[in-house]
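Convert to structure. Protein one:
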Amino acid sequence: MAPLYRGAVTPSPPAVYARGVDIDNPADIAEKIAALRLEHRDLDEAIVRLVDDADADEVAIKRLKKRKLWLKDCIARLESAQIPDEPA
């Protein structure tokens, strides 16, 4: 089977940590991590309240859980960006 795309291979785009974050500025990274953690905690509380509600929309709960996982990934990427590269 032939590949769907026959064009030249392009390099992958740089990793998206979070919009509007200067990954070269540690203070900017720390501020964004704090904001993302706050949103993650707020989502966690909202999910707990919705799960306890018998009339809650299951699709809405799944969307909130996906958003929460995405936030966790963003936080992990930003924390990784804070670690300086060391020569091997």
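Protein two, convert as well:
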Amino acid sequence: MAKNRFSSGDGPSQRQLRVGELIRRTLSDVLLRGDVHDPDLNKISITVGEVRTSPDLKVATVYVAPLGGTLGGESAEAMLAALRRHSGELRHHVAKAMTLKYAPDLRFRMDETFDRLDETRRLFSDETVQRDIAARDDDEGDDD
């Protein structure tokens, strides 16, 4: 298989990034307007954090989270189940907004970015870490 001479292969291509962002915006708008008629989806404000597409743009993995915090495990699973149940309808909305040859298959996953940020903040606020940071700053200040 020929390799694209402009691609370094280290990450998603510009086209993948553009298509992913277009899908993210489209899904955000559809969910915000409540175009999908499901009480389970309409009672939750859903944030579409990121969309990653496969190199052939036929599969899009959509990372979602409830707006304003995390739901319990059962509620998060119910949200994902509702999105998966209506993936065909959501795919139709995405296809109308795009001019691709194929509408991508949508796969939904929980976005855990915010949970990782909370953990990182907790680690940085730890007394031991603060002491190490202060010690490092003092060492760099002595070099002047």
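The beta strands are 46-53, 59-66, 105-110. Residues 112-143 form one domain.
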